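Oxidoreductase (Methylobacterium oxalidis), 285 aa
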Amino acid sequence: MEQFPKPPYPEQQQAMPGSTAAMNPRPDHGETSYEGSGRLEGKKAIITGGDSGIGRAVALAFAREGADVLISYLDEEEDAQETRRLIEEAGREAVLVPGDITAAAHCRAIVEKAVAAFGRVDILVNNAAHQATFTDPEEISDAEWEVTFATNIHAMFYLTKAALPHMKPGAAIINTTSINADSPSPQLLAYATTKGAIHNYTAGLAQMLAEKGIRVNCVAPGPIWTPLIPSTMPPEKVKSFGGNTPLGRAGQPRELAPVYVMLASDEASYVTGATVPVTGGRPFM
C-alpha cells in the first residue's frame, strides 16, 4: 500500500507526446523489480508504443522472460533508446522502428522488419495510443478526431492483418483498451470512443482467429502514470491523477506488465476474447 507514490503529484505539463525523464515522480517500469523465469523463451514480439510507459514495462518484462522485441514508436528517440538498453541488458535482441502508425504502409513495414529480424511473429502487442483533453465537442477538430481513430484503432487492424501470415498456432495478440471503454471520461471523448471500439474489436477478432489457434485478448488499464498524462492533461488534473480509485493512486507501468506476460504465454492457452482490467479497484463491465 505504501511502495508507490500517491497524489497529490507535483503540478507539471509537457508537450505531446511527453518524455519519461521529465516526469516527477519517475514512472516505475520494473527496472529493479521484474524478474523473469523463461515464460516467453525464444518468442518474437512486436510492441507498438514500446518506447515508454506501459509499452516499456511490457518490453522489459518480455525480454527478461526470454523474448526478442521490436519496438514501434513515433519519434521519442531518447525514450526508445532507453528501452533498447533494457532489452539488450536482458540478453535479448531489440529492434527499433520509428514512424507514424496511422499510415497503413508503415504498419506493414513494422511487420516486415520484425520478420526480417526474427523470422516470425509470436506476439503482437497493439499498445500505442493518442489522446487529448477537450471540454466541448466543438473544440475537437476533424483532424483530431481522425488521428485519434487512426492511431488507436485503425492501426490495430493494419498491424494484425500484416502480422497474421507470420503467426503460427499458439501466437497471441494483446490489445490495450482502457477503463474508458466502460466508464468514459467526457473530456476524453475521442479517446474513450476508440477504447470502446478496441474492446469490441478484440472480442470479434478472437472468434475469427480461434480456428487458427491464435489468441486475442485485451488489457484495460485504469489511470497509469505515463508520459501521456502530463502531456495531454491540464496540471490540476495531473496533480490529482488516480486519486479517484479505491487504491487512491495512479498505477505504475510495472503493475501492468505481468498481465501482458500471462496473456502472451502458453499459460493462457484457454484465454481468448477476454478483457483483463487493471484499474486500482474501479469496476469494469
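DSSP finds eight helices and seven strands in the chain. The longest strand covers residues 215-221. ok done for today
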